[in-house]
Automatic annotation (TrEMBL):
Keywords: DNA-binding
GO molecular function, one term: DNA-binding transcription factor activity
Family annotation (SUPFAM superfamilies): Putative DNA-binding domain
Domain HTH merR-type: 3-72
Keyword DNA-binding: yes
Record Pfam families: MerR_1
Listed name of the protein: MerR family transcriptional regulator
Statement: the UniProt record of this protein carries the keyword DNA-binding: yes
Domain of life: Bacteria
SMART domains, per database record: HTH_MERR
Length: 247
């Protein structure tokens, strides 16, 4: 049997000597051996028990309850519980990251935080498949395509679309028309991005843009509102492009 001193056991498990002495004091875990001079020695079995205690502590189980369940739960069961806790934390971190992306992308579009538009996006539940299906009369397959591929403000994938919106805002600021060279370059980029997004589903593409042009429909689907002037610019630029430039 291999034994470890208090310092060795603490270092091996990433604990402090004070913690091990406290566990001994409250009766949670006594070292397997105590010399007359007070020197404590921990066995390999003690270290396994300490690992169980550490896992339970990470699961926020109070020390007073740990002793009650310590010998009733296997390492595998503890790891399964710990895994579940980590997955929950990972989900919380992912939501926090998405909210952070939403805030940053909103600033890119607006130049500042527009809380009136942001708060509903952050607090509302994600758009459900049924709402897309009901509003656009989509098939389940089409709804799944939108749910999966649609650029969302909380994702980095929205950067290309945000860049397009910023370019349109510059055109509006400098009074460049949708039919201008800049406007037509934007139209070409929008059609390319739409093609990447919708592929052969042209009916789905049309339905989506119809929703985008409606503030009420966009709001009901929890989409970030786009200024009506920007949407009008997009529509006019694409119409001109398809009539005069697109081969």
């Amino acid at each position: 049997m291999i034994y470890f001193s208090t310092g060795q056991a603490a270092k091996k498990l990433g604990l402090t000597v004070r913690t091990l002495r406290y566990y001994d004091q409250i009766g949670l875990l006594h070292p397997s051996s105590k010399a007359e001079n007070g020197k404590r020695s921990y066995s390999e079995t003690d270290l396994v028990t300490l690992e169980k205690i550490t896992l339970l502590k990470n699961l926020a189980v109070p020390l007073r309850d740990i002793e009650l369940i310590l010998h009733q739960v296997s390492i595998d069961e503890l790891l399964a519980i710990h895994q579940q806790k980590l997955q929950q934390k990972a989900s919380e971190i992912q939501r926090a990251l998405e909210h952070t992306h939403t805030l940053r992308n909103s600033i890119k579009i607006e130049g500042e935080l527009n809380w009136k538009q942001l708060l509903p996006l952050v607090h509302n539940q994600p758009t459900t498949q049924s709402s897309w299906t009901d509003l656009l009369s989509l098939s389940i397959e089409e709804s799944e395509i939108l749910q999966r591929d649609m650029p969302k403000l909380e994702n980095e994938s929205a950067d290309k679309w945000i860049s397009v919106i910023k370019r349109i805002q510059l055109c509006l600021k400098h009074q460049r028309s949708p039919q201008s060279e800049d406007g037509q370059l934007i139209a070409a980029d929008i059609l390319l991005l739409s093609s990447e997004l919708f592929g052969p589903h042209t009916d789905l593409e049309k339905a989506f843009w119809d929703v985008r042009k409606s503030p009420e429909a966009s709001s009901s689907l929890n989409l970030y509102p786009i200024d009506s002037e920007v949407l009008q610019f997009i529509e006019e630029a694409i119409i001109f492009y398809e009539q005069h430039i697109k081969e």
